[in-house]
Design brief:
- The structure is a homodimer.
- The first copy, chain A, is built from 14 helices and 18 strands.
- By secondary structure, chain A is an alpha+beta fold.
- The first copy, chain A, folds into 2 domains: about 280 residues, Aminopeptidase (3-Layer(aba) Sandwich); about 120 residues, Alpha-Beta Plaits, CATH 3.30.70.360.
- In chain A, the strands form 5 sheets. Chain A has a 6-stranded mixed sheet with strand order 1-2-6-3-7-17, sandwiched between helices. A 4-stranded antiparallel sheet of chain A has the order 11-13-9-14, covered by helices on one side.
- In chain A, strand 4 and strand 5 form a beta hairpin.
- In chain A, helix 2 packs across helix 4, helix 4 packs across helix 14 and helix 12 crosses helix 14.
- At the A-B interface, strand 10, helix 6, helix 7, helix 10 and strand 11 of A face strand 10, helix 6, helix 7, helix 10 and strand 11 of B.
Chain lengths: ~450, ~450
């Protein structure tokens, strides 16, 4: 019944929770690879079983055009507040495999960390929410309705989630959503709440030169190599200091006011922090902004893949690259698309033709830091970690947060118990287990705060 | 005994020669791929059998540190001139497979062309030489000694050929070498002799940024992406018109004199020619030089492969590219290496570290156009094709030609019966069969000219 008994429940069952996490991490539920479709389904069923065992009702796998959403609920009273607990069970591919110390889908504990693909992003976070909910459900009747929505396509841009929200609008009706995918505690002692995310826009640019690969001896000197053209176009997108050169790119980006600048300056995300966690020899980026502003409040362009040619003496017929734009309020993906297209029209030379594919993503968002659920989370984190949380802007995007707001009008409370050096999306992804345990405790306190 | 009977022999056996070529082309003897080692050996044995059947003596597979050299000889008299017939039995990999109309190792005749990887470069050329030699050997006792040296590593830079030449110096003693790998007749009516080749230098440049792949949301804005750095470095190697910007790069390149310029200007290798054969929308390159000079007499830099990143939202830890420099007399690969290294030291930003691997290749060469073997070839080509050959500079490099000159002091007569649109190194490589047949005839005439 009491907060204490729910917290004790977590302690009593911690070993089982850890074993369950290892079980779930063994399933290589890589959403972008059709070869792993059976693993996606296996992970979804595993979570449905978990919801059942926790005491949730109406557990079901709801189909989408892509991977299914695992849904369940635990309804106490129509008058009680309703929380929609979000999670995702899919993961990024683990390549390059050679860089992993242990196998990505054979979880291994070394020291205080559990190493596996998805440990931090976000099977660990998802189970933290479910375990906290289980503790609440198994120890008493808190006046709080819980709904669970666990998707399988977050790592491929939540491709079918918006359609799903539209289709299940009534079922999903909630007061707000809890999302623990907004990871990135600066260290194990400092809890955090995220109040802003960057949006995105994806592009694939292909440069076509000669009709087929050409012998680099026979044609080198008269044919402009598509690799050279693409390199030139990529190089032209930034100036020496790291400012994006696309005309108009920064124009609509919301200005950071003095108060917020002062707050961001007080956060522990300084040069030293990013140097340490990246392992890069030096930082770069817009010199007139703080590192925390550059990743959280300023838009960026990254080429995430460049692929062209073969290890042979040929000028390739084409070269292509994938671009990911990170956008902030009040930029739009359509504007960025138009700016990029204009840039290519202006700068692509007549020696080639080009083709640009556009994958629009969400816009950047900022959520209210003074809403009751956010204040409840602030208090809960302080209780569990013994320290006030920091409020930060996170540079990544969470499609679900934007879609819930845009399509269903539901705000999200954004937190997470991953650390900055967890290497999500990279090799040797890990979860810091003591932080994970504190995080579960914090969520139990959060549910109790909400029910006050 | 007569020239006529050897020519008739070619006609009588043409169908068998074509079938034998198809047999050899079915063997995927890709030298750079260890998975094809058995195919390399199969192709070598196939050629040894062919030499035996032709009537050559002392046929053997001579080992190297890499793939074996097929050797044989037909010695008539110590006082007769000796020709070393060069060929290679290895091929480039056929990727991208999707661009082939028929399978690369399932030869298919469409119209007058035979399509297969290696048809033109150079299994077809090698068999043209062997078939012409067979006609000579089977129809009489020409006062001419023949030696055959068929290597299996041309497409990987003839990596072990120089050691082989040193080891077998005595065995290979010859007056000159016949090399039909200097392909590129401008059209089926115009035979050609090549008097100059470009040399080369290969590099692999790797840019290292962060210690591991980083989430592009969490770090985009503070970390310079290794793909961006590599693109910038590639872009900086050329100016807008296509001139290489490396300080000193052109300094030692031998100046084209007025007489040669006039000769090259008279060749059919103009803008229209290269546009037609490349399928590119427009040409580029040093505007102050003719196209034929740009591919034959001027040095160039090409990036043949750029490989970095994954189709996921990450800044990659590294990015790498393979460079191929084509060099002309009197440049040296070591100078080019030093110039490239200085460029990187000057221009690589402090946000990354880099690593440059150097694979030195041969220097460019020019051979004597008035030597007796060259004049014999000129006459033979005129007889077979009914037209004087053009004298051209070829932009590719042939390691064997340089090594034979540098190590054994043997000059080469360079010709070939491939056409400019044969797509060697690209998909849908082909051999124009009527030209191939005329080429064999020309080689019979050549042997008779030499024996006069």
């Amino acid at each position: 019944m009491s907060q204490d008994s729910a917290v004790n429940y977590l302690d009593d069952h911690y070993k089982r929770f850890q074993n369950e996490l290892v079980e779930l991490l063994r399933i290589p539920s890589i959403s972008h690879d059709p070869a792993h479709k059976a693993d996606i389904d296996k992970a979804a069923h595993w979570l449905a079983d978990k919801l059942h065992a926790m005491g949730a009702d109406h557990v079901e796998l709801l189909p989408t055009e892509g991977h299914p959403v695992v849904y369940g609920e635990a309804i106490v009273s129509p008058s009680a507040p309703t929380v929609l607990i979000y999670g995702h069970y899919d993961v990024q591919s683990p390549e390059p495999l050679a860089d992993w110390k242990s196998q990505p889908f054979e979880p291994e504990i070394r020291g205080e960390n559990l190493y596996a693909r998805g440990a931090s992003d976000m099977k660990g976070q998802t189970l933290a929410s479910l375990n906290a909910a289980e503790a609440i459900l198994k120890t008493g009747n808190l006046p709080l309705n819980l709904k669970f929505m666990l998707e399988g396509e977050e790592e491929i841009g939540s491709a079918h989630l918006n359609d799903f929200l539209i289709q299940h609008r009534e079922k999903l009706k909630s007061d707000f959503s809890l999302n623990t995918d907004a990871g990135g505690m600066p260290d194990a002692d400092t809890p955090s709440i995220c109040y802003s995310l960057r949006g995105g826009a994806g592009f694939t640019l292909t440069i076509h030169g000669p009709a087929q690969d050409l012998h680099s001896g026979e044609y080198g000197g008269v044919i402009q190599n598509p690799i050279h053209v693409l390199s030139r176009l990529i190089a032209g997108l930034h100036d020496e200091q790291g400012r994006v050169t696309l005309p108009g790119f920064y124009e609509k980006a919301r200005v950071i006011d003095e108060e917020e600048h002062a707050e961001l300056a007080a956060l522990p995300f300084d040069d030293e922090f990013f140097l340490k966690h990246s392992g890069a020899p030096a930082l770069w980026g817009e010199p007139e902004f703080l590192p925390a502003e550059r990743v959280g409040a300023r838009p960026t362009i990254e080429v995430v893949m460049f692929s062209a040619g073969q290890p042979k003496a040929a000028i390739p017929a084409s070269a292509s690259a994938r671009f990911l734009f990170r956008l902030v309020p009040d930029q739009s993906a359509d504007d960025a698309h138009q700016q990029f297209r204009t840039y290519l029209e202006t700068h692509a030379p007549p020696t080639v033709t080009w083709d640009l594919q556009f994958r629009p993503g969400g816009s950047g968002i900022i959520v209210d830091r003074k809403s009751p659920p956010t204040l409840a989370m602030k208090s809960a984190l302080k209780t569990a970690f013994g320290r006030e949380p920091i409020f930060q802007r996170v540079g990544g995007g969470i499609g679900a947060v934007l879609m819930l707001k845009g399509t269903l009008g539901i705000d999200s409370v954004l937190t997470g118990f991953s650390l900055y050096d967890d290497n999500f999306h990279g090799p040797n992804e890990k979860l810091h287990l003591p932080t994970w345990q504190k995080g579960m405790n914090a969520l139990v306190h959060f549910f109790h705060e909400l029910a006050k």
